[in-house]
Amino acid sequence: MTIAFHPDISTLMAFSAGTLEEPYAVVVATHVAMCEACREQKKRIDTIGGAVLASAGEAAMSPGALDRLLARADDSIELTRETSRSKAAADSRLPAPLASRLAGGLESVRWRWSGPGVSVADLPVSPGVDGRLMLLRVAGGRPVPEHSHGGQELTLILQGAYQDRFGRFGVGDIADHDEDVEHQPIAEAGQDCICLVAVDARLSFRNRVIRALQPFFGL
Amino acid sequence: MYAVTMEEFEGNPDRTAVSIEPIELIRRVAEARDREALTRLFQLFAPRIKSMMLRLGADQAQAEDLTQEALLTVWRKAHLYSPEKGAASTWIFTIARNLRIDLVRRHSSKPWVDLDDVELASDAPLGSDTVEQSQIIARVAKAIEHLPVDQRKVVELSFVQDLAHSEIAERIGIPLGTVKSRLRLAYERLRPLLEDLH
């Protein structure tokens, strides 16, 4: 897989620091799972984070702290969920961070019509999360509807491709755009283009308003 | 695997001359459930984790508890650590920071830890040869101290204080775009030090 478009370094830094909102973090994690270069990049950034955290100096622990730790350190090994998750991911053609949210794969998605040649499906996020995570499917040759009008927007191509003035975005490519970027992607002729998209919650609210006003426009 | 490295990392010349790389200690915990190795990890990291917790605003009791939890997590999850993921100390400090985040935001909206666990499930052999990690960490820590103040500030607010970029922008009264460009500049300055990280 040749990946030409990556997240901005500042986006990867937020991901590494754990400060991205969940929808964005899922999109970045999915890209990172597909992109060797970004895995390396993230490792470097993680090291920066580790170095920052490591420079806090030292504070003496209370007497007996070590004994308390050893008393609690039993022989049980924590069997974490990732084992089963990785298995689920192995059965799927989707990268692990996405597979865990889309158990049945792309085939099982319940698409909602959203305009000519366009359908969307919201993916679950934790309660109270700002932002919206969704799949967007655009028929070949159709324009990709604008999915936001401000705020950060991350779009990862999962299938097919689209073109805009920045170039051709194929599988694994991510468009990391600030609010002021104007572009009009067009899905490549042929296969449907399916993208994983994270947008700001306020924007999706605004989109709902736009949708109510203009059924054939927006999402 | 025995290397004279923690002195540099610690910046403390009084420590015993020969110490074992944290990566090797974690390997021993994972493979042999070695309590002596856990003890060494405690000695190396507990005072640093506690200090980090205090700096993040925890009180003495909380800082002690969180440090205990962090080392217990290291004990229980040692088999999930892979050198491919990065330096052992980074892994340990990240565990500690995430415990603090979980405490502060019980209903944490962040999937970060989960996502990280997915990545952690790697087939890479534990304890394979790596560049001496603590030296890299020490070098990077020093370089961070020498970043221009405005760059260092955003790096610290992001990685230590757990603030989103928009929150950092608000906190120091600069546009969001400036936060991002300062982070990019900081990264470009630090990147040459990170090239031999494997």
List the helices and strands and how they pair.
The complex is a heterodimer of chains A (219) and B (198).
Chain A: H1 9-17, H2 22-34, H3 36-54, H4 65-72, H5 82-91, H6 96-99, E1 112-115, E2 118-122, E3 132-138, E4 153-159, E5 162-164, E6 167-169, E7 174-177, E8 186-187, E9 193-199, H7 201-213
Antiparallel strand pairs in A: 1-2, 2-3, 3-9, 4-7, 4-9, 5-6, 5-8
Chain B: E1 2-3, H1 6-10, E2 19-20, H2 22-32, H3 35-55, H4 60-77, H5 88-104, H6 112-120, H7 133-145, H8 149-159, H9 165-172, H10 176-194
Antiparallel strand pairs in B: 1-2
Helix pairs in contact in B: 2-3, 3-4, 4-5, 7-10, 8-10, 9-10
Characteristics of this structure?
heterodimer; A: 219 residues; alpha+beta; Jelly Rolls; six-stranded antiparallel sheet; three-stranded antiparallel sheet; 9 strands; 19% strand; B: 198 residues; mainly alpha; Rna Polymerase Sigma Factor, Chain: A; Arc Repressor Mutant, subunit A; 2 domains; two-stranded antiparallel sheet; 10 helices; globular
Order of helices and strands of chain A: HHHHHHEEEEEEEEEH
Top CATH class of the domain at 108-213 in chain A = Mainly Beta
3D shape of chain A: elongated
Classify the oligomer. heterodimer
**Topology order of chain B in helix (H) and strand (E) letters:** EHEHHHHHHHHH
* Alpha-beta content class of chain B: mainly alpha
Looking at the structure, the CATH topology of the largest domain in chain B is Rna Polymerase Sigma Factor, Chain: A
Q: Runs of chain A with pLDDT <50, length 5+?
A: 81-91, 208-219
The counted number of beta strands of chain A is 9
How many structural units, i.e. domains of chain B? Answer: 2
Please, what is the CATH homologous superfamily of the largest domain in chain B? Answer: RNA polymerase sigma factor, region 2, helix turn helix motif
Uncertain residue segments of chain B: 1-17, 107-130
The profile of the biggest β sheet of chain B is:
2 strands, antiparallel
